[in-house]
């Protein structure tokens, strides 16, 4: 027990370090090497779009589901064996809110870009919602890292601001380098033959690949590797966000892998699975490049998706949870308020685990480890403080963070969770419309602003009922009251905004 | 169960109303009358400085302790019989942070006036702490109420900014009227014969009482009643904060009541008890005046203290909890991190409960009701949203609130709590120095930034151990880890600031 007590202290120490700064200094006389940090961010990638199992059985061991058997992601399997993944890692159910949470460490209710950013016009929402994305005065992760000696590189999908707005260019939000990022959220075409475009929706900066058969995912990977090489030449640590446009629609087959897959019931699934495998090849290529350059020991990689799956899979089995589709056995998909819309794969790993590495001794990550649902969860807002701790720099004064560093939890097997709350506020119309989701411990409450009173609430215990099959809102009224009150307080604390014409129930 | 379910919906409706605004409109054709709202705020008044029992027994019934038997507060007894009080109502353990939380609805970690404001100089603290009090651009309750048709009146102690700073005058923070408020936190003398002053520390605006035997508490009450009359003449609803300098030191006997009390062991106690009774007389006089003017039905009063007791009582009995003093049986007093330093009396009541009152039908308050510790707690941050709901106005967009409206809970007997967290962050030196306290459900964790590792944490279960006698930090390591992580997340969410030279443990 004494040992665990010490771990608790160490963890709080580590967590607090990012805000106090004072003890983040190296104790040695030499300035300490800083790790390279990579966010490998996959658009629309849900928890089940991989052969790596993230859902555990009753013993807390990973369990293979049919979708895991359908996809082939060997590089992810390798990464999972080297690192530490979470069964439950929350994002928003749509992309821009999640991406801006990753950049700011704040919940979407707080940063106020609560809906996806429409590149062409102001998407509908409450009066003050940030439809125009990240503002000049917002604190962002690349700004802070750049100030602390990092070369900051963005490759791929941006989607931080609409067309012709400042935030359309990732350089505006703190990246030294931007290749491929602009206002669009999807590529129109993944094919170099199409110049990665259709009409005005084109991926910029990739003219060298136009007319070739280079897949967009591959082109971005090549550019990422080039930027890594430039960072070596510059002698600076780098922060690389490789944000693939894949797996977003259009579901064009990737000719390198499409022939491996078939699906009679869902004819788009083979194309989708080929996009998945192309993404996985990118991961493998990136890791190989880092190892070739001798950077594996000093580079930490965070693999994650930005919202639940949009896989064109409608289920081929008769039972209900399978029929739900994209994220089976989870309920729901991208855009919905169920866990299938909000849970994403998350793996943290040193690229090359090495026992003798000073950096890895300082921040150990448990290998081949999964933190199962019984041990809690993490979320996109935790990336900002985690990264600041790795970079050895302070959080900006007065910048509220809706997350905590994960490094304490990632160090050991089945540690207690570092958080027990997650909030997603969505005062907009989409696949699911006008809702707030609040998770606290095992409980999840969903409030629907535009439904009649007797259907306005859903309440689930996700440990007893991970597929959200049993709405307990009526049978557990005291728990519902408690959760509704806690949700309201969390909304108040974030300064949440509401639609005037979609208020709370009458 | 259906009934309770409906209550939950009604409560969330009521809570959300303050942020959406849309459904706060009256359903009738006529604009609805707004209630008058009074904060009766007593300086340094702890939970036990009254004959009204706030602590309950195992059956949830109020239990009389020796301190309740020592004091005489008949007006408070009357108010308690008319209204709804909380056994557990949290404030900060020092005054300015609490007062600014009441004005802003934000925790002190968020508004950043984390220490009492030294009127003469910058009090020590982290770089960016708001030692100069409320800034021009801060959202405050009286500003919002004034914009919504209220006459806003401050009588008594201000202490919102240091000498010669803008916030030294309560008018700067949104009050139309200020009588008696300035930079000082204590009156130097309560006697009109002394002109309520000693040297430069004098209470302003009370020249009419100089040289008389009018006690300061009485003078402020007379002025409050005059302002109520002016509000009637103006035809506007009023928000009155009657913020007594009492019970703050100096502990001068109030000659009207001093002879009633004796205490050989603690010779200052009779003087202190006379200040208490003088404060109570003020409450009675104010209620009488409101009733004489026919305002009792439409006026809601919130009685509260701003931090734990500073009573000069050291205990005369041999058991430990009694020896602790001022707040016995609670542990600790003003300035400390124990509940005796952080819990204050709170009573919410319509001045004259009237079944036929339209306003009281809209916002019923349970009478002669105590919400016991088993049913949760509330805090100073809840006053802002509660008051906005009563005033029928929105919370300002983008202003985070660390509280929720209490009206749903106050309406019924032993309702579920509306909150299960409270944070007090104190990166300063005082009676207790450099600590953070975080309450979540029954658990309370205290972290000491400047103590050795084996003494840095305290952990209590306040339902099992309301006197904080048994530190469980070592015996419950998993709970400690969970609470430490939740505390760190709450600090991150508030954007808390830390002393560079008093960081977290090495």
UniProtKB/TrEMBL annotation, chains A, B:
The keyword Ligase does not apply. InterPro entries: Alkaline_phosphatase_core_sf (IPR017850), Sulfatase (IPR050738), Sulfatase_CS (IPR024607), Sulfatase_N (IPR000917). Gene3D superfamilies: 3.30.1120.10, Alkaline Phosphatase, subunit A (3.40.720.10). GO terms for molecular function: arylsulfatase activity; metal ion binding. Its cofactor is Ca(2+). Keywords: Calcium, Hydrolase, Metal-binding, Signal. The keyword Methyltransferase does not apply. It comes from the Bacteria. Residues 36-392 form the Sulfatase N-terminal domain. Residues 1-29 form the signal peptide. Belongs to the sulfatase family. This is Sulfatase. It comes from Persicirhabdus sediminis.
């Amino acid at each position: 027990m004494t040992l665990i007590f010490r771990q608790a202290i160490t963890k709080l120490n580590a967590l607090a370090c990012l805000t106090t700064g004072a003890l983040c200094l190296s104790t040695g006389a030499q300035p300490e090497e800083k790790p390279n940090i990579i966010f490998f961010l996959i658009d629309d990638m849900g928890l089940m779009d991989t052969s790596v199992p993230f859902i555990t059985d009753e013993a807390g061991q990973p369990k293979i589901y049919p979708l895991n058997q359908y996809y082939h992601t060997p590089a992810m399997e390798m990464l999972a064996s080297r690192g530490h993944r979470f069964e439950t890692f929350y994002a928003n159910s749509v992309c821009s809110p999640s991406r801006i949470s990753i950049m700011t460490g704040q919940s979407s209710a707080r940063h106020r870009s609560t809906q996806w950013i429409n590149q062409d016009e102001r998407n509908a929402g409450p009066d003050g919602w940030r439809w125009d994305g990240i503002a000049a005065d917002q604190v962002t992760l690349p700004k802070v890292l750049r100030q602390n000696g990092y070369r900051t590189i963005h490759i791929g999908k941006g989607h931080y601001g609409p067309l012709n707005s400042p935030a359309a260019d990732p350089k505006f939000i703190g990246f030294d380098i931007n290749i491929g990022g602009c206002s669009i959220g999807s590529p129109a075409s993944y094919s170099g033959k199409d110049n990665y475009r259709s009409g005005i929706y084109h991926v910029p900066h990739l003219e060298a690949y136009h007319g070739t058969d280079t897949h967009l995912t591959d082109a971005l990977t090549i550019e990422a590797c080039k930027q890594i090489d430039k960072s070596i030449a510059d002698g600076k640590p780098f922060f690389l966000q490789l944000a693939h446009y894949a797996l977003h629609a259009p579901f064009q087959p990737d000719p390198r892998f499409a022939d491996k897959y078939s699906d009679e019931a869902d004819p788009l699934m083979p194309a989708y699975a080929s996009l998945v495998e192309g993404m996985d090849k990118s991961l493998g290529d990136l890791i190989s490049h880092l190892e070739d350059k001798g950077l594996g020991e000093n580079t930490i990689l965070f693999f994650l998706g930005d919202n639940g799956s949009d896989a064109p899979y409608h289920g081929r089995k008769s039972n209900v949870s399978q029929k739900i589709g994209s994220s089976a056995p989870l309920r729901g998909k991208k855009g919905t308020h169920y866990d299938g819309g909000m849970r994403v794969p998350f793996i943290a790993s040193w690229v090359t685990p090495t026992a003798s590495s000073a950096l890895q001794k300082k921040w150990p990550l448990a290998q081949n480890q999964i933190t199962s649902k019984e041990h809690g969860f993490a979320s996109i807002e935790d990336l900002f403080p985690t990264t600041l701790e790795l970079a050895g720099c302070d959080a900006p004064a007065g910048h509220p963070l809706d997350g905590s560093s994960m490094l304490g939890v990632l160090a050991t097997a089945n540690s207690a969770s570092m958080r027990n709350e997650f909030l997603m506020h969505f005062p907009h119309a989409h696949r699911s419309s006008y809702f707030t989701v609040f998770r606290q411990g095992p409980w999840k409450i969903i409030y629907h602003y535009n439904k009649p009173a007797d259907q306005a609430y859903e309440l689930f215990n996700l440990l007893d009922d991970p597929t959200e099959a049993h709405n307990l809102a009526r049978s557990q009224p005291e728990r519902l009251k408690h959760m509704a009150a806690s949700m309201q307080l969390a909304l108040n604390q974030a300064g949440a905004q509401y639609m005037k014409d979609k208020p709370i129930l009458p």
